[in-house]
Amino acid sequence: TPSGTLNAGTTSTTISVSVTDDSGVSGVKYDTSDVAYASMTGTMTNESGSTWSANVSGLQDGQSYTYYVRAIDGEGNASATSTAISFSVDEESISLPTKLIGGICVECTMK
Fold it and tell me: Which of 59, 70, 65 is nearest to 92 (CA)?
C-alpha cells in the first residue's frame, strides 16, 4: 500500500508490504528502480509480524510513483523478484466560473 490515487497536496506517504519466509525475514529494502536487493537504497522497518513499512516524501501533484520492494531471509537469500507498489498523486483542481457572459467566462472549471 498505498495504491490508486492519493489526494492532491500529498507530499509524503507510508508504503507498506507484507513479507513472509520459512527462514524468517531479516530485512526489506525498496527503490524507485527495479534493482537487486544489495543495490536498493531505502530500508523498510518491521512494524509487526510480517508488515514492513517506510515513509516516502517529496511527492508532487500530478505525478505517478512506483517503488520496488525486495526482502532478504535469515539465511541471506534475497528475493529473486521484486514487488511493485504503484500510486499517483492527483492534480490540484482550480474552480473557475463556467458561465459565459459577453464572451467572458465567469463560471469555468480547470483541472
Answer: 59
Reduce the DSSP state of residue 39 to 3 states and report it: helix
pLDDT in tens, 59-104: 999 999 999 999 999 899 999 999 999 999 999 876 655 666 666 6
Spatial CB neighbours of 33, under 8 Å, sequence gap ≥ 6 = 68
Decide: 79 and 71 in contact? Cβ < 8 Å: yes
Q: In the block, which residue shows the cell 520492494?
A: 69
Phi, psi (5° rounding) for residue 104? -110, 130
Does the pTM surpass 0.90? The reply is: no
